[in-house]
Design goal:
Layout: E1 2-9, E2 11-21, E3 24-34, E4 43-47, H1 48-54, E5 59-62, E6 65-72, E7 75-79, E8 82-86, E9 90-94, E10 99-104, E11 109-115, H2 123-130, E12 137-139, H3 145-159, H4 169-182
Parallel strand pairs: 3-5
Antiparallel strand pairs: 1-2, 2-3, 4-11, 5-10, 6-9, 6-11, 7-8, 7-10, 9-12
Helix pairs in contact: 3-4
Organism: Streptomyces cuspidosporus
Protein name: AraC-type arabinose-binding/dimerisation domain-containing protein
Length: 187
């Protein structure tokens, strides 16, 4: 059974399928990347405030990457049925096809970056996003934090530019910089 829903926000559409998990019927929503209003934008950003507005606590599976950088607060996310804590200066990576649920994000501040698998522009970051062994959660070191924060802020600035004012390449280039600075550890 498929359940069709209107898009949650710019760039996301949903359908759902009833799945069985531990003997209970659970709806897993299939999220599809559908950029609206911008010429084929391969990268979208939002705050955790916006994610809270959109999140109904349901289980989701996306066909795009979800990369979250937590500035402050505590919460949790479940990725492929494994719960991960969210805390100050941590990162979350949900690869396409992974089942995930934002469990407790009421006190979390930071940003979420949505992007298609082809968005990164450097060889190293394209290889990383294509890896089947992406780690879902890690802490960003104090030494790396200023670089991660600056890379993210530059991406946020360029991604918020008016549609006619931005090259679609700039957010992709800056996404690659953010991924390189985040340094996801090997699994």
């Amino acid at each position: 059974m498929f359940i069709e829903s209107p898009p949650l926000c710019r760039g996301i559409g949903m359908t759902g399928r009833l799945m069985v998990e531990t003997g209970q019927m659970t709806v897993i929503r299939q999220m599809t990347y559908q950029p609206v209003g911008r010429r084929a934008a391969a990268v979208e950003t939002m705050t955790f405030d916006r994610l809270r507005e959109l999140n109904d606590g349901g289980t989701q599976r996306a066909d795009f990457h979800v990369l979250a950088v937590v500035d402050a607060g505590h919460g949790s996310v479940t990725v492929d049925f494994q719960r991960h804590p969210l805390q100050d200066r941590s990162a979350v990576w949900v690869a396409p096809g992974a089942v995930h649920r934002w469990d407790d994000i009421a006190g979390v501040a930071g940003h979420v970056v949505l992007f298609v698998p082809t968005a990164p522009v450097t060889h190293a970051t394209r290889e990383l996003v294509a890896s089947p062994d992406l780690v879902a959660h890690w802490s960003v070191s104090d030494a790396d934090w200023p670089y991660v924060d600056t890379a993210r802020n530059h991406l946020l600035l360029e991604a918020s530019a008016p549609p006619g004012d931005v090259s679609t390449e700039l957010p992709e280039i800056l996404l690659s910089a953010l991924i390189a600075r985040l340094r996801p550890p090997p699994r």
